[in-house]
């Protein structure tokens, strides 16, 4: 605990930026990463990667309390950044409509999902026949596998990491909400932890989950991963 009550313990000299209170301190460069909502059933039958597919309309209607819970969890004064894919932008607008209020959206192409190139739109059962490497246990392919005309997860980690560092430099001390994708959020975690993408792919990133990253003194840390809005909805 800080000896001076006027200095929050998280910022007290020599404290190590520990998070002692229930609230995250203000004035920290912080990214709130939200995975988009679930997509329509037909799209889920195929490898959609960086394709533009629609959200599931039935889930959109049923999950309004989850969007409202996310809105209450997210900082009201944050910048909002989305991938160029419609499902990310529609998820952001659903959060706005559920009570958060409308905000401007900045499109950042580097936060898009992994491009599967020529493997886009394949039925899932056909994908293993195309792989040249053993698939990751928790992803459709290994981190170093590059689909023809697409990206490897190593590529995704490089572009997401560059985007995070650049936006952190340009928005020091501010909150930024990023509505993105499962692969891109895992890439962000890989960058923050400085671990190989194959390791970061072991994290589960579910639809509508929240992960929080901070950069303090030029160093990234992870506050939370895959926090689900269902846990925030009152019984």
UniProtKB/TrEMBL annotation:
The lineage of its organism: Bacteria, Pseudomonadati, Pseudomonadota, Alphaproteobacteria, Acetobacterales. GO terms for molecular function: phosphatase activity. This is Phosphoglycerate mutase. One of its GO terms (cellular component) is cytoplasm. InterPro entries: His_Pase_superF_clade-1, His_PPase_superfam, PGM_Phosphatase. It comes from Swaminathania salitolerans.
């Amino acid at each position: 605990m800080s000896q001076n009550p006027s200095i929050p313990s998280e910022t007290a000299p020599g404290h190590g930026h520990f998070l002692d209170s229930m609230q995250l301190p203000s004035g920290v460069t912080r990214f709130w990463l939200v995975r988009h909502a679930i997509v329509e059933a037909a799209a889920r039958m195929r490898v959609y990667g960086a394709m533009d597919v629609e959200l599931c309309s039935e889930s959109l209607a049923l999950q309004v309390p989850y969007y409202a819970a996310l809105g209450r969890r997210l900082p009201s004064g944050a910048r909002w950044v989305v991938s160029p894919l419609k499902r990310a932008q529609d998820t952001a607008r659903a959060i706005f409509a559920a009570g958060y209020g409308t905000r401007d959206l900045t499109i950042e192409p580097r936060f898009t999902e992994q491009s599967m190139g020529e493997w886009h739109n394949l039925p899932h059962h056909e994908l293993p026949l195309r792989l040249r490497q053993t698939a990751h246990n928790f992803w459709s392919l290994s981190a170093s596998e590059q689909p023809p005309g697409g990206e490897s997860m190593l590529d995704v980690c490089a572009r997401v990491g560059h985007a995070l560092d650049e936006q952190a430099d340009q928005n020091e001390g501010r909150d930024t909400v990023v509505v993105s994708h499962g692969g891109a959020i895992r890439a962000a975690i890989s960058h923050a932890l400085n671990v190989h993408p194959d390791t970061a792919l072991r994290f589960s990133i579910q639809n509508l989950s929240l992960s929080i990253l901070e950069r303090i003194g030029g160093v990234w840390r992870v506050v939370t991963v895959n926090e689900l809005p269902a846990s925030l909805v009152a019984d």
